[in-house]
Write a structure and sequence with these properties.
Layout: E1 2-5, E2 12-13, H1 18-25, E3 31-35, E4 57-64, E5 70-74, E6 77-78, H2 84-107, E7 116-124, E8 127-135
Parallel strand pairs: 1-3, 3-5
Antiparallel strand pairs: 2-6, 4-5, 4-7, 7-8
Helix pairs in contact: 1-2
Length: about 140
C-alpha cells in the first residue's frame, strides 16, 4: 500500500488518521491512499453522465479502475464542521464499509469488470452518506 499525505492548517482535518487507514487497508498491495495529495477537493470524473446529488462536503472517495488498482482519497474538511466524534464514527464504521466494498470489487472475475467504479462518502447534516457510481 502506498500512502501519501500533505500537512493541513490547524483549522482543517481529514476524516481518518493515517494509522487507521494502514490498520484497515495495510494488506492490500494495489491501493494508493492519498490525504489531500494531487487535489484538495473532490471532482466528478468527466466520463460520468449520471452524477449523484451531493449536498454536503465530500470527505473521502475510493475508486477501482479496470486494471484493479485502487485509489483511496481523503479531502480536507473544516474542524468546526467535522467533530472528533464524526471522525471516530468514520474510522469505526465507514472504513470497514469501504474495505468490504473494495474487497468485493477486487474479487470480481475479469469478465465482470465493465469500467471504473467509485464510492463517495459525503458529510451532510451530521451524518455520513455514501454514493456508488460506475463509469466507462
Amino acid at each position: 500500500m502506498e500512502l501519501k499525505a500533505i500537512k493541513l492548517p490547524a483549522s482543517q482535518r481529514f476524516a481518518a488518521s493515517r494509522r487507521a487507514v494502514k490498520r484497515t487497508f495495510g494488506d492490500i498491495e494495489d491501493l494508493s491512499a492519498w490525504f489531500g495529495v494531487f487535489t484538495r477537493t473532490f471532482t466528478f470524473d468527466r466520463y460520468l453522465s449520471h452524477r449523484p446529488r451531493i449536498t454536503g462536503t465530500v470527505i473521502a472517495s475510493l475508486s477501482v479502475s479496470r486494471d484493479r488498482s485502487a485509489h483511496l482519497r481523503f479531502y480536507p474538511i473544516a474542524r468546526v464542521s467535522y467533530s472528533d466524534d464524526a471522525a471516530a464514527q468514520f474510522e469505526s464504521e465507514m472504513l470497514s464499509r469501504l474495505r468490504s466494498w473494495l474487497t468485493r470489487q477486487l474479487a470480481k472475475p475479469e469478465t465482470a469488470i465493465l469500467g471504473a467504479e467509485e464510492i463517495i462518502v459525503e458529510w451532510t447534516r451530521g451524518e455520513h452518506r455514501v454514493h456508488e457510481m460506475r463509469f466507462l
